[in-house]
Amino acid sequence: MDGQIQALRAVATRAAQRGRLVITGHDEPDTDSVASCVLMRALLSHWDVQAQIVLPTFAEAQAKRVMQRLGVDVSPMYAQTEAADQLVLVDHHSALHPGHVVICVDHHPTACRVEGEYVQIAPCGACAFQVYRLMERAGMEPDAALKRLAVAALYLDTVALRSEKISAQEAQWAREGAAHLGMDVQWLTAEGLQMDDLTQPPEALAMTGKKAYDFGGRRVVSTCVQTDAMTPALLERILAVLRTAAQESGACLWVYLVHDPVNLRSVRYDITPDGRVAITRYDTLVSRGKTVMPQVEQSLSRAAVKGEDQSPV
Ligand SMILES: [Mn+2]
Fold first, then answer.
1. pTM greater than 0.90 (yes/no)
2. I need a surface site. Which of 49, 61, 187, 192 has the fewest CB within 10 A?
């Protein structure tokens, strides 16, 4: 065991003698947060340090689904922290609930001073992977169930290993781990890419990711879907829903985006209240906030200028 690991063990051991040692993730915990908690509890228990996981807010739907499939029951973790609790923060670095922070292991870089006797914040694809590495450094041999959690956290926290925040080595570790453990890579990838379930009714698929924008008094509504399996028939049914929605919304435009994260492309459908649809195809996975909406704003202001030109003086 290296000095850093020894320091972590010493801090945890002392803290557990002072009061209840509580491991917690960020609010509305995602898969990485919950996995980090479970791995941290395993590490502490390896050292005979009693700790319990407390999640003060409900886990995201995806985390519930993924944890269930990986054999982790999150329901007993739902509880509140208390002021006297000794907190171990994972996957976040500022206490959101009562308690005294003693340990923090996170992968979100910050310029702020982080409270705690043991603080480890390193850029890494998933916090759970960082905890997994600590387990190895502690001389533990994490079992398959624990390793599965670290692999899943890496896939889900990094857009299926595509995010710029994951290093090539980490991605390789996740791929090899998934293969070695016989995990369903297609499932991990689909969850990581946050693909929408196309068996939902068109009314639901038309309304995913809804956002409203105001461009100088002109209201634009936008929704989007993530899939690599859109069919012309389903699209037609979604557009029919959107024609009605566009008319009833009072917005001057409804922008619907179909993102295909597998083939890295997007298609944009501009629906006007009169029911017309204009199509723009992008050969990249386009960002709504960074690319599409500025384009929409520009074309709206151009149209406004043109409208003024045509108006009789
Ligand atoms: Mn995370």
1. no
2. 61
